[in-house]
């Protein structure tokens, strides 16, 4: 850890994979990875009502923390429900209208981010961006919007010394 802090990489920001979105690992490797940035499709600690509500209901129903697959399944169900609510039932062209309505979902606030269904049927999402600060993962961007920023203390200290 100390050799990294004193190397030429000390002012670099470490970008990590989504698998670093693990509170236990973050506490364990916090000193080494302090300031690291991680993009992740699902942040368990997200404060948005959709995410926190989903996490609370999941914990109550299953007695454990939700994982990415459960969150994605929930969002997929919400997209289907949105498509069904906008499709009149009992019509001859129900299937075509339903598919059209699914493909018109745009900027839906899901538990895994802001979701849109592209014309080709693929789902695109704006992921959360996390930053490791003092051994804790903090959400600094959600759905493409900055929700907070934790300054790099070493840079802050350097700036204070210069003034």
Name the descriptors.
three-stranded antiparallel beta sheet, 6 helices, five-stranded mixed beta sheet, 40% helix, 163 residues, 8 strands
List the helices and strands and how they pair.
Elements: H1 2-5, E1 15-16, H2 23-33, E2 37-40, H3 49-62, H4 68-85, H5 94-102, E3 108-110, E4 113-117, E5 123-126, E6 128-133, E7 136-142, E8 145-146, H6 153-162
Parallel strand pairs: 1-2
Antiparallel strand pairs: 2-6, 3-4, 4-5, 6-7, 7-8
Explain this structure to me?
This protein has 163 residues and is an alpha+beta fold. It is 40% helix and 20% strand. The chain is built from 6 helices and 8 strands, in the order H-E-H-E-H-H-H-E-E-E-E-E-E-H. The chain has helices at residues 2-5, 23-33, 49-62, 68-85, 94-102, 153-162; strands spanning 15-16, 37-40, 108-110, 113-117, 123-126, 128-133, 136-142, 145-146. A 5-stranded mixed β-sheet has the order 1-2-6-7-8. The chain has a 3-stranded antiparallel β-sheet with strand order 3-4-5, covered by helices on one side. Strand 7 and strand 8 (145-146) form a beta hairpin. The longest helix is centred in the middle third of the chain and has 18 residues, at 68-85. The radius of gyration is 20 Å and the shape is elongated. The model is unreliable at 154-163 (pLDDT under 50).
């Amino acid at each position: 850890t100390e050799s990294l802090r004193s190397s030429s990489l000390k002012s670099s920001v470490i970008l990590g994979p989504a698998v670093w979105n693990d509170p236990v690992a973050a506490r364990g490797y916090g000193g080494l990875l302090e300031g690291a940035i991680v993009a992740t499709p699902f942040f368990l600690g997200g404060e948005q009502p959709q995410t926190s509500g989903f996490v609370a209901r999941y914990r109550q129903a299953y007695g454990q923390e939700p994982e990415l697959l459960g969150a994605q399944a929930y969002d997929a169900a919400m997209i289907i429900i949105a498509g069904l609510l906008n499709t009149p039932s009992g019509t001859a062209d129900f299937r075509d209208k339903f598919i059209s309505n699914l493909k018109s979902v745009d900027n839906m606030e899901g538990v895994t981010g802001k979701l849109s269904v592209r014309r080709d049927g693929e789902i695109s999402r704006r992921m959360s961006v996390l930053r490791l600060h003092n051994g804790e993962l903090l959400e600094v961007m959600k759905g493409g919007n900055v929700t907070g920023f934790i300054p790099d203390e070493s840079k802050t200290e350097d700036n204070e010394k210069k003034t």
